[in-house]
TrEMBL record:
InterPro entries given in the database record: Kazal_dom, Kazal_dom_sf, SPINK2
Protein's organism: Dipodomys ordii
Gene transcribed to yield this protein: Spink2
Stored SMART domains: KAZAL
Taxonomic lineage: Eukaryota, Metazoa, Chordata, Craniata, Vertebrata
Residues annotated as signal peptide: 1-18
Domain (Kazal-like): residue spans on this chain: 19-73
Entry's Gene Ontology cellular component terms: extracellular region
Pfam families: Kazal_1
Protein name: Serine protease inhibitor Kazal-type 2
Gene Ontology molecular-function annotations: serine-type endopeptidase inhibitor activity
GO biological process, one term: spermatid development
């Protein structure tokens, strides 16, 4: 039991239990994105200028990219 608790704590510290969120791509008129700088970190470990540019990447490449956090990677 103590080993399981320790493992869970180590995973939390490592960030492996991060809750990713889906970008709200429906709110954007792709392929045009606003030029505002509001960086987000994608689950592909790339930093995008804003949520719309992440949606543009999804739209262009067809990859399922989620938002890890609302700041650069």
């Amino acid at each position: 039991m103590a080993g399981a608790v320790l493992r869970l704590m180590l995973l939390m510290l490592a960030g492996d239990l991060a809750v990713y969120r889906m970008p709200n791509c429906a709110q954007y008129r792709l392929p045009g994105c606003p030029r505002d700088l509001n960086p987000v970190c994608g689950s592909d470990m790339a930093t995008y200028a804003n949520e719309c540019t992440l949606c543009l990447k999804i739209w262009e490449d067809g990859h399922d990219i989620k938002i890890i956090r609302n700041e650069p990677c």
